[in-house]
Amino acid sequence: MHISFLIHNAYGIGGTIRTTYNLADTLSEQHDVEIVSVFRHRDAPVFEPGARVRLRHLVDLRKDSPDYDGEDPAFLHEARIFPRAEGRFRQYSALTDRRIAAHLRSLEADVVVGTRPGLNVHIARQARRGVARVGQEHLTLDSHGRALVRRLRAVYPRLDAVTTVTEADARSYRKRLRLPGVRIEAVPNSVPEPGIRPADGTGKWVVAAGRLDKVKRYDLLIRAFATVVEQRPDWRLRIYGGGAEKAALRALIDELGLYNHIYLMGPASPLDPEWAKGSIAVVTSRLESFGMTIVEAMRCGLPVVSTNCPLGPGEIIDDGVDGRLVPVGKKDAIASALLELINDDERRQRMGRAALVSSARFDPGRIAGRYEALFGDLTTTGGGRGGLRATVHRTRGALLSGAYATKDAARAAVRGVRTV
Amino acid sequence: MSASTQLPATGTGTRPPQRIALRADCIADSAGGLTFDIAVPGAAGEDAGTVWGAALVLRLRGGEPPADEIRLPLGPNGAGRLRAVLPSTVALAEGRWNVYADLGDAGDPQRLLPGLNDLRSLVDRRPLAAIGRLGVRIPYATKYGNLALRSWLRGPHAESGEITVAPDGITVQGRLYGAALEPGAAAEARARRDGHTVTIPLRGDGPDFAFVLPHGPLAEQWRAGTERWDLWVRTGEVAEPVRISRILDDVPDKKQIFTYPAMPIAAPGAQVRVGPYFTVDNDLSVKVVGPQEHS
Asked: Hey, are the CB atoms on A199 and B120 less than 8 Å from each other?
């Protein structure tokens, strides 16, 4: 198959970029894969897209480039196809409308995959006949405003499939959007096996990682850890990441006198070696559209104590087996779940080993196999707007995905993220 | 000429061809040794095992080759992989060392990029206190994204542990390596401005020590701006003082990560703030910050 991804900016840093690269790289073992970036603002991408994946852009924002597009008059005019209610609307323009339209009109692919709502709208309206149209949702439907949801409800029926990263979000798409004949499927993000030995669970460190944003509730984590330190002053906490909340969190650590026990480590990349130094990972977020760091920590052999927040953590962690799920916003619940694992070395290490096994279902090979099965179904049924489109449970997809040997095992291992 | 002018001049440009950059994965052992693993792709990788002159080259930043250059044999370690070992017994001068690979192909040694640094054995490192001289090397990525080593070579060494800031002073707990505390041992705070020294009694328990540095004597000496004091341990009445620092873990730069609150204290004619901090060399100092200054 020829698979073409359409992404906002493949040259930056971000979860969508990383997960798209992982998926594209793995699919490129069997297929012809390209990533088309609407914008390019730097010469080289920050992440490595994989040797077989072709990468190109539509609008050049490098001021020193001979093809700099920032002075095109159309660049200053508001976009009309890219929806106004989308978060990135202001970065789009009459120029992006034109370039994306030309790209989609001429695209000779079997499958085109959009990676955010605004681009999915372009694909729904402008992709050629005969190209299967897939719109990915990397956030959640509930995170979008009403105006955008109305727009998606009007346009998404022209897609062939919508993918979400959680089963819960897929349910919410089915319930709130009611897209007749559009296949809605949950496919989690993939996380590769780390290149280092997993943690052995003997170190006395708890590790958290993510942007220092309010939604991550690191203030709550710091207060919960004060309770932990009262009982177990030999355990300490490292928080990786940078962000707007840093000064407030620093002040809170100092105010509580926890500066010998809690460290704000700053951003780290890659993170795997930092997880491997810990024995427990912790997530205290109010919201996690997926929960990438949970999977990353588990792949390094750490049990994760996480709030059971919407939507991701509950579909990743098997409470009491490979981690702990606690209610959102409850300091004492976080502290006691951490202390449970801190005070029971054998249980902690057993859960770490379980995390290592269960998180293998997020391996790029398995996730790519699920995408391949989906793409195979869509192309078999005629792609584009074929009349047979609704008959999605065809065997061809399974045959195609046989190329990824891990796929069937993945189906068996997947809990709560079963395909439609 | 900027790099972009070499790109294809089409509206939808493709990726420019890139020179193959080599990455080294570093694994630290708890004794202070480091192993470097380099994946060499393609033809160079197939030949890599047969090149006798291949070496990992360490160059001290600001140093003078060849004296400040160390070459370690780079040998085959499976297909397309090379390995070099820096044992703890090879002394590395204190400072920052850039890391290169010389593949023996007559080209200039190639600067290495950081791969995965597995430093878990350094995290709670606690060598034997009797060790004469401590060698510490922490691999890290420079701000330009290259691989470098931060190195310390100290003996005797006074390692800072927990530090507590309270109204009665700054309590420093630590551990002494390569020397024993004798009668008359003391801690010292020395003003960088004029060398004025405040001497504080030291409690010792085997290699472990602790002292409380009161804020008053430092605040009293304050004149203007930000004034800095360096902290030392004198192990006996006639012993050479040992700088207090924190080097026994996996964090190459402590300054931004190991931070402490400051205490408001009355000084002559002003209210100052007194608080401990780690310098860019991970040595422990105290800042006395005047009312007009940002700490």
From this structure: yes
Average pLDDT rounded to a whole number, residues B72-83? 90
Identify whether the C-beta of residue A204 lies closer than 8 Å to the C-beta of residue A236.
yes
B39 and B73 together in one domain: yes
pTM attached to this predicted model: 0.88
Structural domain containing residue B68: 17-154
pLDDT per residue over A106-129, tens digit each? Answer: 999 999 999 999 999 999 999 999
Q: Is residue B10 part of a domain?
A: no
Minimal CA separation from A179 to chain B, in Å: 34
- Strands A54-60 and A111-114, bridge-based pairing: unpaired
Among residues of chain A, what percentage have pLDDT more than 90? 86
Label the pairing between strands A111-114 and A2-9: parallel
Is the residue at B131 inside a domain?
yes
Q: Show the DSSP H helices in chain B as ranges.
A: 42-48, 216-220
Question: Rounded to whole angstroms, how far apart are CA atoms A404 and A19?
Answer: 18
Per residue in A285-300, pLDDT tens? 999 999 999 999 999 9
CA A410 to chain B, closest CA, distance in angstroms equals 28
**Count, residues in chain A:** 420
Q: How many domains does chain B have?
A: 2
B2 assigned to some structural domain:
no
> Is 60 exceeded by the pLDDT of residue B127?
yes
Q: Which residue has the higher pLDDT, B149 or B130?
A: B149
Which of A21, A35, A260 should we substitute to test contact with B (largest number of B Cβ atoms within 10 Å)? A260
Instruction: Name all domains of chain A by residue range, CATH numbers in brackets.
Output: 2-186 (3.40.50.2000), 205-361 (3.40.50.2000)
ipTM for the predicted complex: 0.90
d(CA A210, CA B98): 30
- If asked whether residues B187 and B219 sit together in one domain, one would say yes
Contacts across the A-B interface (CB distance below 8 Å): 80
Q: What is the CATH number of the domain that holds B120?
A: 2.60.40.10
Closest CB from B4, B18, B25 relative to A65: B4
Q: Are residues B106 and B184 in the same domain?
A: no
Q: Is A302 on the interface with B (CB under 8 A)?
A: no
Please say if the pLDDT value at position B12 is more than 70.
no
